[in-house]
Amino acid sequence: MRPKPEIPSEIEEYRDERWCREGPQHIDTAFAAERFVERAGFAFCLQDSRKPGPSLYVAVCGRRDAVMPRNVQKDEEASLTWMLKDEIITRGKVYYAKLARGKTMFLAPRMIPCFHAIWGMRKSEEDKRLSRNARAILRVLRREWEMASSDLRDESGVKDRTAFTKGLDELQAAMIVTPSEVFYQPKFTYIWTLGVGRFPDQLRKRVNREVALREIARCFLAGAGMTIPGELARVTGLSRVEAGRGNRALVKEGYATMPAYGTYRLESSHASTHPACVLDEPGVRETSGE
Predict the structure, then answer these.
(1) DSSP 8-state assignment for residue 125
(2) 241 contacts 209 by C-beta, under 8 angstroms
(3) CA dist 188 to 2, 149, 150, 159, 183, Å?
(4) What are the residue ranges in the chain where pLDDT is below 50?
(5) Tens digits of residue pLDDT in 68-90
(6) Residues in Cβ contact with 100 at an 8 Å cutoff, skipping those fewer than 6 apart
(7) Which domain holds residue 149?
(8) Is residue 46 domain-shared with residue 86, that is, in the same domain?
(9) pTM, two decimal places
């Protein structure tokens, strides 16, 4: 087996600054959390330092080595992250859902079309790709627009909790349904709604798959500074083949260099620029449907 490449100290320091992994930049308000997601492009919620990628929990802790404790209920940083997540959902400024491979993620609005191009689903594909339970839940939401979990379970006829959760996970992964509010009284529940109702422009924008791969790779590399073999795939849920295509597209345009096989480094002239999607090209178009 090949030894795992080590990330140079200067790259770790770059990530500290970009992903708020140092004390002075730690996150403690919903507004700051939204700015963090917008700058990162996408971020996990409660993921700790044992897995790569930007994370709201790590940014709340403000340290590179943050590890989630076993008893999260009594951990102040985990509790604050959870509360910020609830407030972010209600504010509706960034996208939040359980996306590819069950990863709970925040997306900046500029990244929604790219993620949707890879994992989204058109209405014409739903009968073939969604399970019967997922379709039943979706029919209710399209009629009622938003509904609490218990009411949605009753109205859809998917009474089994496990089957209901699995159906909702399908709809979230396809970027069709997203939570819009969280209530704790009289009992804990999410309010579910259609993603297109919150982010209509972004979810109706059609992006070529190759463009989407390149821009997801650009987004990660802008924050990471360098990516080692397999890292982009682990972080985003892309296959390693598609992650490689996205990274090589950046090399081709001069945004990145490839110092070793599978390793891509941000070209120094782009290191200080604010990350942004490059979507004003032939691979992108607007549509009026879902």
Answers:
(1) G
(2) no
(3) 47, 9, 10, 18, 5
(4) 276-277, 279, 288-290
(5) 888 777 789 999 999 999 999 99
(6) 118, 119, 173, 236, 237, 238
(7) 121-174+176-203
(8) yes
(9) 0.90
